Amino acid sequence: MSAPAFALADPPKVDPAPNLPVDPPEGARVSEMDYWAHYYEHENGYEWNNGLLEVKPVSDVLTYQIYQWLLGLLRCYLETHQNARLTALDMGFRLELLGKVTIRKPDLGLVRDDNAVPLEDLDRSYHGTFDLCVEALSDSTAAEIRRDTEQKRREYEAVGVPEYYILHHQPRWQLFYRRNASGRYQPMPREDGIIRSAILPGFQFRLEDFTRRPTLDAMIEDPIYAAFVLPKWQRERAAWTRDREALAAEREALAAERDAREQAERIAQQERAEKEALLAELARMRNGA
Predict the structure, then answer these.
(1) pTM score > 0.85 for this model?
(2) pLDDT (tens digit per residue) in 251-276
(3) Which of 53, 152, 156, 252 would disulfide-bridge 161, Cβ 3.0–4.6 Å?
(4) Quick check: 102 and 50 in contact, CB under 8 A?
(5) Biggest CA pair distance of the chain
(6) Do residues 104 and 124 lie in contact, with contact meaning Cβ atoms separated by under 8 Å?
């Protein structure tokens, strides 16, 4: 079984040491202590790979839009179920691997409420192992592709991240892994083009929706998403619809009752007129006799 990942205590904000570069290049060698103290919160978004700084690459706009859509979907799910917490972009965690240590900042991380290491309100790094890591793939270079699809996949697998998603606007780089009973990543099933999470019961999405990115208005009508996208609003809308239909039915009943009264009154008036005409005719007949 792999050793659990852990993070150092959140480092205090300090000025860079005089002998350390302020903006070191990719591959610069620094100690782990110096990384936490000076580069963990650096604007370059450095990760740390066993003594070497790595700059997180930038994804293209389409891939970022897919990331934002999935993030919004996860927020809807968590607003409904409230069983986990999210981090994004700059929160790192420490991975103690066989023969090396890395510090990674997944583009999106999720910690379930039943995780042995809770995500605390004031954390600036996560001290445990994420339950889900998501990376928005950058394909600027082959090395960047390998970092997410191979290197981080091996690292997240080794420290026990249960699910790992790789996002990209090209379907061939949309990769979803789940850790099996042996601790190895396997591709998640794609039944009818739908990915279903095991760590978030009920959370699911269509792969084709990465292209369409349907709005909330569309998803609340979609059986794939309706169970966790704005269910409170759906219940309120259903109640409002029921009230409106009940009011309409009441109005129709009142209108029908009014129409019936008016019809009865018209019939009564007609009968009275006919009776009066008959009496008048009888009177003329008597007078004529």
Answers:
(1) no
(2) 787 788 888 888 888 888 888 888 88
(3) 156
(4) yes
(5) 138
(6) no
